[in-house]
Amino acid sequence: MKKFGLFLIGAVASIILLSQIGPLLGLVISAVILYFAFKQYVKATSTTGKIGWGIAGIIMLVITASNLPAIIGLAAVYVLYLVYKKWNNNKKQSIISKNSSDDPFQNFEKQWSELNK
Q1: What is the rounded distance in angstroms from the CA atom of residue 25 to the CA atom of residue 59?
Q2: By Cβ atoms counted within 10 A, which residue in 5, 70, 91, 94 is the most buried?
Q3: Residue 33 near residue 60 (C-beta atoms within 8 A)
Q4: Does residue 13 contact residue 83 with C-beta atoms inside 8 Å?
């Protein structure tokens, strides 16, 4: 039942991520151009260069702000990561529980070999 819940949450997060791919790409591209415009603004020595890069930066800031709904897509990516991590964690725990034994003699042998090292 736990796996079904994880699968359901993962499916919903995948659908949300797929619906937000366009805004995510727009956000990334506009943020990169905004960063480039800021770096050029700082490097510019002339007043006209600073004004030009400042205007370009403001335009890119507005474009970046228009893509802010893409944060929902980023949250979906994070949820998918958590589901993936939890799904694999359950597999490791089941393997560990199958390998561990309650036999006192096997546990004694393990502890004795660790003490002799």
Answers
A1: 17
A2: 70
A3: yes
A4: yes
Tell me how far apart the alpha carbons of residues 59 and 97 are, in angstroms, rounded to a whole number. Answer: 57
Q: Look up residue 4 and give its two tokens.
A: 């079904």
Write the pLDDT tens digit of every residue in 8-60.
988 988 898 898 898 899 889 999 999 999 999 999 999 999 999 999 999 99
Q: What is the reported pTM? A: 0.60
At residue 43, what is the residue type?
A: K
Which two tokens mark 5? 């819940």
What does the domain layout of the chain look like in residue ranges?
Answer: 23-94
H-state helical runs in the chain: 2-19, 21-43, 47-66, 70-99, 104-115
